[in-house]
Design a protein that fits this description.
With about 300 residues, this protein is of the alpha/beta class. The protein has 15 helices and ten strands.
Length: about 300
């Protein structure tokens, strides 16, 4: 059994998508559709920069989605592949859950782009710059991370944002609390704590204003039943009902990304191969979570052609 998986924020880079668009009309059509939906030249920003503008949450989320969907669409249309015939599940990390829903036909490309643009703007606006932060704990499992968060909180928000894999957990919250995380992490058993270069404290209760904005936007969004079940971040379980998908996407804004549990749940459901589209980020996590699983990253036309031969 196979799952297609889609990366989250941090996988953007200037130049993304250019080689694919140069080689494929299908990819160019996806990038144009996203540009039209947003009313901006996002593809030009993706390929030419500047990097600091691409890094902005309002741009990076839609860009990462566009790049991954373009890669998938080239596989599907030029390889005459039907997703539902080749995979049993899809999943994505944080914003990648929207990409996964788009891949599975629950959301169309234009709707996904607009939702992610709004999500990025709402998340950035939820907390004034400098008042929130995130830190990655290396060499710490979920229990250890929770203990560090509790010790560092001192009455401020400090929670687990991403349970990525057995050796990497990300904490999010008030700047003061995250500063204390950096200071005390080693004495609480983590190998290292690294402050992340993000502009807001994602996936924690401070994001509630963004969750409210997304609840309103998602209420008006057309969501179909996906062609294959999607593993949701906040439950680490497969979902196919549109109303449930809508609710879980709202919860995801403030909730923990349960990526480690999601991979284990997919493996328990029979998935033996994980195929990542648009980046080479999640496959490393998957290998640390499920060492016996087969993984492959699809970024270039060569990658697509190799996968077509293997499918």
């Amino acid at each position: 059994m196979r799952a297609f998986i889609f990366p989250g924020q941090g996988s953007q880079a200037v130049g993304m998508g250019k080689a694919l668009a140069d080689a494929s009309l299908v990819a160019r059509e996806v990038f144009q559709e996203v540009d039209d939906a947003l009313g901006q030249h996002l593809y030009r920003l993706m390929t030419e920069g500047p990097a600091e503008e691409l890094l902005l949450t309002e741009n990076s989320q839609a860009a990462i989605m566009a790049n991954a969907i373009a890669t998938l669409r080239v596989l599907e249309r030029e390889g005459n592949v039907r997703l539902a015939d080749k995979v049993e599940y899809v999943a994505g990390h944080s914003l990648g859950e929207y990409t996964a829903l788009c891949a599975a036909g629950a959301l169309d490309v234009a709707t996904t782009a607009r939702l992610l643009k709004l999500r990025g703007l709402a998340m950035q606006a939820a907390v004034p710059v400098g008042e929130g932060a995130m830190a990655a704990l290396l060499g710490a499992d979920l229990d250890k991370a929770r203990a560090i968060a509790e010790a560092a909180s001192e009455g401020e928000v400090c929670t687990v944002a991403n349970d990525n894999d057995p050796s990497q957990v990300v904490l999010s919250g008030a700047k003061g609390a995250i500063d204390r995380v950096i200071a005390i992490a080693k004495e609480h058993g983590a190998k290292k704590a690294v402050l992340l270069p993000v502009s807001a404290p994602f996936h924690c209760p401070l994001m509630q204003p963004a969750a409210d904005a997304m609840e309103k936007a998602l209420a008006d969004a057309r969501i179909e039943a996906p062609l294959v079940p999607v593993f949701a971040n906040v439950t680490a379980a497969a979902v196919g009902d549109p109303d449930t998908i809508r609710r879980l996407l709202v919860e995801q804004v403030t909730g923990m990304v349960r990526w480690r549990e999601s991979v284990l749940a997919m493996q328990d459901a029979g998935v033996g191969q994980f195929v990542e589209f648009g980046a080479k980020v999640l496959t490393g996590m998957v290998k640390r979570i499920a060492p016996d699983a087969a993984t492959v990253s699809i970024v270039s036309m060569d990658d697509i052609e190799a996968l077509l031969k293997a499918l």
